[in-house]
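haha ok so turns out i had the wrong file open the whole time. this is the CORRECT one, sorry everyone. sequence first:
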Amino acid sequence: MYNAKQIIPGLIIFLGLITFPLWYNMGKAAPVPQPKLDTPAIQKLAQKQCVLPAAQMRTEHMQILNDWRTQVVRFDKRVYVAPDGKEYNMSLQNECMKCHSNKTQFCDACHNYAGLKLNSTPYCWTCHIAPKENK
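then structure:
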């Protein structure tokens, strides 16, 4: 191998620089957020249950909101019937945010953990009014 004295150390330095973020952050994962469910509306409920099971809402809430938007805007269908037969208004502001009014502790905590751009606004709030929170 020609110029092995320069190539091998160069490759070692290159690999060290490329893998630096991996080994520097090893074991420093952020803790999984625990959304706050202590809003007054949730505390008043006799049965604390969301539209769908919590695990499904965690993974599919954006698709559900998109489907609701399509049903309301295009087909004027405004009532969602859950698998348990209970009816809900298909409305982010009037249904979801009624219980989940603590946007910074509920929505923002998970969105930041999931890697949505910090200080960016999810496009929900381009049409809907973001809830005002008591500080």
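Residues 54-75 form the longest helix (22 residues).
again sry for the mixup
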